[in-house]
Amino acid sequence: MDSIATEQKAGVDDRFDTTRITAAVDALAEQYQGREDAFRTAMAQLLKAELIAARAAAQAILLKDRHGRRCAERLCHVQDEIIRILYSAATRHLYRSPIPSGAERMAVVATGGYGRGLMAPESDIDLLFILPYKQTAWGEQVAEAILYCLWDMGLKVGHATRSVDESIRQARGDMTIRTAILETRFLTGDKPLYEELVERFDKEVVQGTASEFVTAKLAEREERHRRGGQSRYLVEPNVKDGKGALRDLHTLFWIAKYVYRVRDTHELVARGVFDAQEYRSFRRCADFLWSVRCNLHFYSGRAEERLSFDLQREIAIRLGYTSHPGMQDVERFMKHYFLVAKEVGNLTAILCAKLEDQQAKPAPVLSRMMARLRPTAARRRVPDSDDFIVDNNRINVAAPDVFKHDPVNLIRIFRLAQKNNLAFHPDAMRDVTRSLGLINAGLRENPEANRLFMEILTSDNAEIVLRRMNETGVLGHFIRAFGKIVSMMQFNMYHHYTVDEHLIRCIGFLQDIERGGNEEFALASDLMRKSRPEHRAVIYIATLLHDVAKGRPEDHSIAGAKVARRLCPRLGFSPADTELVAWLIEEHLTMSTVAQSRDLSDRKTIENFAAVVQSVEQMKLLTILTTADIRGVGPGVWNGWKAQLLRSLYYETEPVLTGGFSEVDRGKRLAAAHAEFRMAFAEWPKDELDAYIARHYPAYWLKVELPRKIRHARFVRSSEQAGHKLAINVGFDEVRGVTELTIFAADHPWLLSIIAGACASAGANIVDAQIYTTTDGRALDTISISREYERDEDEGRRATRIGEMIEDVLEGKLRLPEAVARRTVRSKAKPFVIEPEVTINNQWSDRYTVIEVSGLDRPGLLYELTTAISKLNLNIASAHVATFGERARDVFYVTDLLGAQINAPTRQAAIKSALTHVMAGDKAVQPAA
User: Fold this and answer.
1) What is the distance between the alpha carbons of residues 369 and 318, in angstroms, rounded to a whole number?
2) What pairing do the DSSP bridges indicate for beta strands 107-110 and 394-397?
3) CATH number of 829-929
4) 3-state DSSP assignment of residue 109
5) How confident is the model at residue 762 (pLDDT cuts 50, 70, 90)?
């Protein structure tokens, strides 16, 4: 973007001696005189060795000074010199023209990212060979000599050869070519030819087309964001093309350069687009993103642009981040990354506002029409306030000092915009950001400010308004605990967004729940209607704050409850409601844990959960919070199975809390489930339907969602009609990205272990399992495995192989330990470190000992665990298998061989030790099956 001359003076070229290398090329030309191919090969080898050495030196400097922009400038300078050396060699040694004609002129020009004077280590090189008229034999030979040598060096080169006329003609009709020419930079050759292109491009292409160009570039940006995921807070961002990443900065500069005809970004200050502070922010963002990108390329050895989990920690270390209590080094690095992405978004908004003021970027069509019809209404006073105006349907300040005059306006502007359905004018948001210093203790304690904030939180479109409050910094300054988790990522594969983005999304889903009509939230919506009206604000503030203490050394649920106890009185909550908010935050993980990893048909599970929730009203609120929380984690995390588990847990617990009375008691719910199934599945005769319903225990009917029940019925019937001892049905859940194997077989003590082993032998990683036994001794198990292939047909064939393995093991044709050992070769170390935990508990069930294991997931883990448990002479009565990103959490209800709980401390210690070794991956101590 900016000139690299300053950096060259600072010693960019002291590791790439152009004079020395040119002399070496000249010596090679003399040595291989008359042998052009040998000369080209020797020259390519020489330049490749010099480039490798220069890149190594650039990487060493980068690791020392951590300045990515300077690194990108160094690498670009080296590439410039190589192309100049090649052009010189081609025109002096290979295709020398003693008396060149007017057509034997050429300008070699850098375009695209290379044209900006910045290159990542593995970036493509984009070149334009400019000719005065049409292609000549001389021009073709010189261009080919340069290109072939670059290719022989292993470089990726994009190129075009055009005359000036052709370049202008194509730029008029193709926005990509227009953008490339916009970023051209002269390298070598005939400079007047290049200057002719620039002059004609300005006059014949750029003039009068600013609006067209801006519209196209912003539309291109929106489409790129749509393809990559709209949020800039995705936890594995793309450093080049993601929202808030380098391409957005490039788009800013393309637009500014086209509209304002500037060459360097610092000229935008003189043009009044950015002030000095915003320009410094622009530079800081670019410097940081270039540091990340250059380190990504160097470390991976390829043009890697995605900051994936397995690269994040290494880049964090390279950039000098260290761990702090409660936050890992990688989490501190990623928080910085997302803060930069947020700032890039702010800069984009500022530029767009400036363009709209100058009408370079067209206002929305409806706004333009309304402005023509009612010109006096384009700017009018906002209802209920003299401090704000409506400017083309966007809220703006009426005077420069509205925030200084009354700091409550920093909250009021958001409430007025929400109340009057107004967008935010970027100039107003700019003023808000500059006024953050006014948010002090006095404003935080101001009753009016807190009342307005609660109105924002509990009114329509709260998610949109809260996100704008967060982007401007108001939310984090007004609620300081929230400010600590802004842009904070959680270094795991379960959460898709940063903590602040997750909380704001949860508010959006909570409003979906309250509106009703969405079948996936049916229970939560029903409970929202039935809960006490005075608790509506309670559930909203609890949802906003439930993860607000992430990143602290203390458990975030306990620390979050403390935050709520301090904050809620300020927001106008009574002592009783404050304590209820604190309780919801402290227990916000309890319901999902119990629902997904406990046996809901075990009376003790329900009694223990009832003791935690204490009342039906608290359970209602906890169910609503749990639903919003799971749904807000990311796409595919919430599903019908989890909804059904929460529903079962709620209705099983309700009669315990009400002393036997339930709005829907268990018998009625069971009858309703049977009736629902009969109504939806009328394709069987009544007698056959009655017999099938009787084959399943009540837990099956209460815990499995209806569509799955229907699939099971058809599958069981077809399997038995075909006479299969073992049958497997394959399904695909595109939302969760898993393949589901439903297995119908004779029940067997080792069946789960056999299924797990067969999956491991096929390289399939189990992410969850639903295990049921029929009254006639058949097992109906649904195992979800991570997809390996894109095509369903390929996944189906893999599932068939797994089924054949299970059958072979049951018939004694195959020994699993050998098959698993052949397949489950230890893969490279994962970026995550999770200490194994094994808990043995006799208080969670009256009949069984409950073993809960948690640790880093890996292929074959469930097989190793179930095999170890069986070898420990334990019977598995039920298993609850789940993964949360990279973390596996499996719960087994077991007894000894006589059907009793495991009470002896020494026996419990032996079990814990063995399973801890399995979780840690210690093959030496695993029992051999």
Assistant:
1) 53
2) unpaired
3) 3.30.70.260
4) strand
5) confident
Residues 536-569 pLDDT 10s: 999 999 999 999 999 888 999 999 999 999 999 9
Burial category of 832 from C-beta neighbours within 10 Å (exposed 0-12, middle 13-18, buried 19 and up): middle
Partners of 770 in beta bridges: 782
DSSP letters, 8-70, are: HHTTGGGGS-HHHHHHHHHHHHHHTTT-HHHHHHHHHHHHHHHHHHHHHHHHHHHHHH--HHH
Q: What is the pLDDT of residues 423-478, one digit of tens each?
A: 888 889 889 988 999 999 999 999 999 999 999 999 999 999 999 999 899 999 99
CATH code for the structural domain at 365-478: 1.10.110.30
* pLDDT, tens only, 831-881: 667 789 999 999 999 889 999 999 888 878 888 898 899 889 998 888 888
Q: Which residues are CB-contacts of 217 (< 8 A; sequence separation ≥ 6)?
A: 175, 179, 251, 254, 255
CA 242 to chain centre: 10
DSSP label at 696?
B
Q: How far from each other are the two terminal CA atoms of the chain, in whole angstroms?
A: 64
CATH 3.30.70.260 in the chain: give the residue spans.
829-929
Task: Tell me how far apart the alpha carbons of residues 786 and 766 are, in angstroms, rounded to a whole number.
Answer: 7
Degrees (nearest 5) of the Cα angle 132, 137, 143?
75
Q: How many other CB atoms are there within 10 angstroms of residue 20's CB atom? A: 10
- Return the C-alpha torsion angle 56, 59, 64, 68, nearest 10: 150
Give me the pLDDT at residue 270, please: 83
Those residues whose C-beta lies under 8 Å from the C-beta of residue 815, and which sit 6 or more positions away, are 809
Tokens 């194509």, located at residue: 170
| Location of each CATH 3.30.460 domain in the chain | 5-207
Distance of alpha carbon 210 from alpha carbon 729, whole angstroms: 59
**Contact by Cβ (8 Å): 340, 285:** yes
- Comparing CA positions, the residue from 221, 290, 289 lying closest to residue 255 is 221
The CATH topology of domain 212-357 is Four Helix Bundle (Hemerythrin (Met), subunit A) (1.20.120)
The type of residue at 897 is L
Cβ-based neighbour number of residue 649 at 10 Å: 26
The architecture in CATH of the region 499-636 reads: Orthogonal Bundle (1.10)
Judged against a pLDDT cut of 90, whether residue 253 lies above it is answered with no
- Nearest by Cα to 352 from 382, 394, 312, 320: 394
- What single DSSP character describes residue 774? B
**Which residue do the tokens 């703006």 mark?**
396
Domain 5-207 CATH assignment equals 1.20.120: no
How far is CA 86 from each of CA 81, 151, 189, rounded to the nearest angstrom? 9, 12, 11
DSSP-assigned letters across all residues of 473-517: THHHHHSHHHHTTTT---SSSS--B-HHHHHHHHHHHHHHHHH--
CA 756/CA 863 separation, integer angstroms: 5
More confident residue, 824 or 732: 732
* Cβ pair 539, 531 in contact under 8 A: yes
Contact 338, 489 (CB under 8 A): yes
Query: What residue spans in the chain does CATH classification 1.10.3210 cover?
Result: 499-636
Return the C-alpha torsion angle 231, 235, 236, 241, nearest 10.
30
